[in-house]
Specification:
The chain has helices spanning 56-59, 76-80, and strands spanning 21-24, 43-53, 67-75, 89-95, 99-101. The protein is mostly beta strands and 102 residues long.
């Protein structure tokens, strides 16, 4: 560990592609996770597939479990309600295990 990138060379097929609407799973893992609590259950759109990386939630326990990591765009209003600026959005990098088709 400790490296800036845990990218894995893999031909593992991506579960999602740019433009897919996804919903973040509403899960509360008892162990390490990189999934922010405030996006759980929220819907976003995949903007980019970064490729395959070591899954940090498993890496924390000595496993690799490589999977795709995606840049997912969420509107500010989806995250914080109608009072948020309609022009604002947030991009969050999310792993396969965090999301499912919306």
């Amino acid at each position: 560990g400790g490296g800036a990138s845990a990218r894995v060379e893999s031909d593992m097929p991506a579960k999602f592609t740019a433009g897919d609407r996804v919903v973040v799973k509403n899960i509360n893992p008892p162990t390490h996770t990189r999934m922010p609590r405030y996006i759980r259950g929220k819907t976003g759109r995949v903007e980019h597939d970064h490729g395959v990386f070591v899954y940090p939630d498993a890496s924390a326990h000595g496993e690799e479990k490589p999977q795709h990591c995606y840049s997912v765009r969420f509107s500010a209003q989806e995250l914080w309600g109608p009072q948020a600026n309609a022009k604002d959005s947030l991009y969050i990098d999310l792993f396969d295990d965090y999301i499912e088709k919306a």
